[in-house]
Design goal:
Layout: E1 6-13, H1 20-33, E2 39-46, H2 47-50, H3 57-74, E3 82-85, H4 91-100, H5 105-109, H6 112-120, H7 127-142, E4 147-149, H8 155-172, E5 180-182, H9 217-225, H10 243-256, H11 260-266, H12 272-299, H13 301-330
Parallel strand pairs: 1-2, 2-3, 4-5
The structure holds tryptophan.
Tryptophan binds near residues 140, 150 and 157.
Length: about 325
């Protein structure tokens, strides 16, 4: 809690361009909560986490700033939501180190995301990739967070964060608030348009598999037109036998608010071609205002700069409070002022 408000905290890695999956799985939920004054809201651009994969410095710097602008373009007002860069608040790295010392290798060995990434980047299995969930725990715990809206793939990371916080509290008293995951209902997991058994990913080699938030209308329509489906022709939800169509039904539902049954009824007797076109148009219509706002923001450097400055300071203030408390609890020597 901060004052009488609950704290909401989330963030995304600052790599590549955001996908429709990132938007529907996470960002859209953030925006829905972003006018709720019951919450004090923090959204990080998680650039330290991005360093677990080798980055091209110039591209990385550009992507991180663009991610900031995309948060805002998607509907998070930076004057009401503390949107900031993780690397600008040194308390993250400092608490991360302390929490490393309260995390067991056995726990980290169980992390499925680590196993996946280690398999994918066998030439660079660095220690940061391994302790990634501990830095994430530090992100969350620094702000005395109550709720963390994330995609379903982050559930395990939330669990370990809670375990670390409980362990710490058991030793030192109530230092950290124990956070809860908030997984949105519809569209929590958007699958690849080409291999609908796999998650939509920004790093997919097949360009047709992924919708990017900055794709233009023609590209969006073309990718949906080429989406892999099954050999039937009935628009019917069945994730097992019809994963492609089921994914499209979920995407359509997430952007229009329609339930699976409503969509099935709407397209009863119509073919896949009509349905794919409708999904493409609905997605493009949803992205249009976001893209327009994004272009305006990118053109107005001084506005984003002032938001960054203001919010970095706010984040530093709250994170610093928790960090000093932790340092004192574990027995680090107090500074002389
Ligand atoms: N690991 C998250 C992801 O890949 C990003 C992240 C880092 C995060 N720190 C966080 C999300 C803290 C929520 C809270 O999506």
């Amino acid at each position: 809690m901060i004052g009488d408000k609950k704290v909401l905290y989330s963030g995304m890695q600052a790599t590549g361009t955001l996908t429709l999956g990132n938007y529907l799985g996470a960002l859209k939920n953030w925006v829905e909560l972003s006018d709720d004054d019951a919450y004090e809201r923090f959204y990080g651009v998680m650039d330290l986490h991005s360093l677990t994969l080798r980055q091209n410095p110039a591209e990385f710097r550009k992507n991180a700033r663009n991610l900031y602008a995309l948060y805002v373009a998607a509907g998070l007002d930076p004057e009401k939501n503390c949107i900031y860069f993780q690397s600008h608040v040194s308390a993250h790295a400092e608490l991360g180190w302390i929490l490393d010392c309260f995390t067991y290798m056995g726990e980290l060995n169980r992390m499925t995301q680590f196993k996946d990434k280690a398999a994918k980047h066998a030439d660079n299995i660095n220690a940061g990739l391994y302790t990634y969930p501990v830095l994430m725990a530090a992100d969350i715990l620094l702000y005395q967070t109550d709720v963390v809206p994330v995609g379903i793939d982050q559930r395990q990371h939330l669990e370990i964060c809670r375990d670390i916080a409980l362990r710490f509290n058991n030793i030192y008293g109530d230092v950290f608030t124990i956070p809860e995951a908030y997984i949105g209902k519809a569209g929590a997991k958007i699958m690849s348009l080409q291999e609908p058994e796999r998650k939509m990913s920004k790093s997919d080699e097949n360009a047709n598999a992924t919708i990017y938030l900055l794709d233009d209308v023609d590209t969006v329509l073309r990718k949906f037109k080429r989406a892999v489906t099954d050999s039937e022709s009935e628009v019917r939800y069945d994730a097992q036998t019809k994963p492609g169509i089921s994914n499209l039904i979920d995407i359509y539902g997430a952007v229009t608010g329609k339930t699976r049954e409503e969509t099935e009824r709407e397209f009863a007797g119509k073919g896949y071609g009509d349905f794919k076109l409708a999904v493409g148009e609905a997605v493009a219509a949803r992205l249009r205002p976001l893209q327009k706002r994004y272009q305006e923001l990118v053109a107005d450097k001084s506005y984003i700069d002032s938001c960054i400055k203001e919010n970095d300071g706010k984040a530093q203030y709250f994170a610093g409070k928790t960090l000093r408390k932790v340092q004192k609890k574990v027995g680090l020597t107090e500074r002389i002022r």
